[in-house]
Design goal:
Blueprint (H helix, E strand, L loop, with lengths): L1 H9 L3 H16 L6 H24 L3 H14 L4 H13 L3 H14 L4 H30 L3 H4 L18 H13 L5 H23 L5 H11 L1
C-alpha cells in the first residue's frame, strides 16, 4: 500500500494516495510479536506514512487533518524537522501565522541547511504583513465613515435654548458661572433687588415725615409756575 500511495503522489493523485496510506497504517497497527529491530522499523514506517498523509492532506486542502498527522508524529518524535515543517505549512494555510512561525523556527534549528524551511518562513512573514496591512486598511475605512451625526442626533426645533434633554438646569448653571467669573462671592442680583427695595422704603419714609399726603415733586413743579 505504501508503494502504491507513493506512485499516486508522483502522479498528483493525492486523494487516491491518501486511501492507500491509511490502509497501510491500519495494517501496521495489527502487527504483533515483533522484536526490537522490527518494532523500530514499524515505528519508522508509521512515521513515514503519517508524513505522507500530511502532505496529501495539504495538497487536497485539508490543513486540519495535516496538523493532526504531524502532531501524532511529533508526540513520538519531538525533533522531527519534516513534521514541524509540514505542520507549519498547515498553520500557514489557515493563516495561523504565529503557530507556523514557531514550528518553522524549531525546524530550522534542527535542519539549518533546509532551504524549504527558510523559504516557507519568508512566505509566512510576507503573508502576515499583507494580512495586517489589509486589516488596518479595513478598520481605517470603517472609522472614516463614522461621523459625529451618526452617534449624536441633532436637537429638534421643539427644544428650547435651555431644554436640551440632558436633565441639567442650564439657566442655573449660567447664573453660577456668572458668579464664578465675578469672584466676589456676592449675590449681585439679590443686592440689586435689595437696593430697589431700600429706595422705595426711603421714599415712603419721607412721605411719612411730611404728613401732608401730597406729591412733593408735583407741588414743587407747581410752585415754579406761580413764581
Amino acid at each position: 500500500h505504501k508503494q502504491s500511495g507513493n506512485e499516486l503522489v508522483k502522479q498528483g493523485a493525492f486523494a487516491e494516495a491518501l486511501g492507500h496510506y491509511k490502509k497501510a497504517i491500519d495494517t501496521a497497527e495489527y502487527l504483533f510479536d515483533l522484536n526490537e529491530e522490527q518494532r523500530a522499523q514499524h515505528r519508522d514506517l508509521v512515521v513515514q506514512l503519517r508524513l505522507n498523509m500530511a502532505l496529501c492532506h495539504l495538497k487536497v486542502g485539508q490543513p486540519a487533518s495535516a496538523v493532526e498527522m504531524c502532531t501524532k508524529v511529533l508526540e513520538g518524535e519531538p525533533n522531527n524537522a519534516k513534521a514541524l515543517y509540514r505542520r507549519a505549512c498547515a498553520h500557514h494555510a489557515v493563516q495561523d501565522f504565529d503557530l507556523a512561525r514557531r514550528d518553522l523556527v524549531a525546524a530550522a534549528k534542527l535542519a539549518p541547511a533546509d532551504r524549504a524551511i527558510r523559504e516557507e518562513y519568508a512566505k509566512v512573514q510576507q503573508d502576515q504583513s499583507a494580512a495586517e496591512r489589509k486589516a488596518r486598511s479595513a478598520y481605517s475605512g470603517l472609522f472614516s465613515r463614522i461621523t459625529l451625526t451618526d452617534d449624536i442626533p441633532a436637537p429638534t426645533h421643539s427644544e428650547g435654548p435651555h431644554e436640551c434633554g440632558c436633565g441639567h438646569d442650564h439657566h442655573h448653571e449660567e447664573h453660577e458661572e456668572h458668579e464664578e467669573q465675578c469672584g466676589c462671592g456676592h449675590d449681585h442680583h439679590h443686592e440689586e433687588h435689595h437696593h430697589e427695595e431700600h429706595h422705595h422704603e426711603e421714599h415712603e419714609e419721607h412721605e411719612e415725615h411730611c404728613g401732608c399726603g401730597h406729591d412733593h415733586e408735583e407741588h414743587h413743579h407747581e410752585e415754579g409756575h406761580t413764581h
